[in-house]
């Protein structure tokens, strides 16, 4: 019995080291996916819960927008194009998680061929409050291809 227990603990330890993801990193990855799904669904109520009160975005057009601006767009019928996000790095500093990576945005022509999608780079900043992580800031810009 002790041997089985020891093997199980060893396996779990090796698995966690191998995958290298802490619980917090797994949570941030889940939230990254979740808030993108909420944006796709147009769920403004749930988005306002995930975004911090002072959430701010520097969008790919170089305009700084707030939740009020984004919700206003959504309520006026604007549909954000689909985005596929690839998280490349998550860095933690105390109660701050910085997420960086690349994303592909479906162009306005709504083509489904992902090779024609617009490549962008992004940085998302999450802050952990007493209870949960909230998205505090985002920057996204078109990726210039070499």
Automatic annotation (TrEMBL):
Q: Which Pfam families match?
A: DUF4440
The residue range of the signal peptide is 1-20
Q: Which residues form the DUF4440 domain?
A: 28-135
Q: Which UniProt keywords apply?
A: Signal
From the Swiss-Prot or TrEMBL record, give the protein name: Nuclear transport factor 2 family protein
